[in-house]
Amino acid sequence: SGTPPLLPIPLYTPSTSRRAGIPEADTPLRNRPLLATPRPRCEVGESSAAAARRSGPTMAHGVNCSYVETRL
Questions:
Q1: What's the rounded Cα separation, in Å, for the pair 50 and 42?
Q2: Where do the record's region annotations for Disordered lie (predicted)?
Q3: pTM score, two decimals?
């Protein structure tokens, strides 16, 4: 039909650090854990791309944003 064939998923990708594409082999041993793991005070959450792929209502749909008038 009219759809292009799917490309194969690469089985091996070289490991690199998160700093400017420096290969892990060139990163000092003491710095490798710091580049690969989140800090204890960091919160790991879902990316916006992953949230966009998810079907169903989002958090914004469940939030009541109605205006309530108050008088003192």
A1: 19
A2: 1-61
A3: 0.17
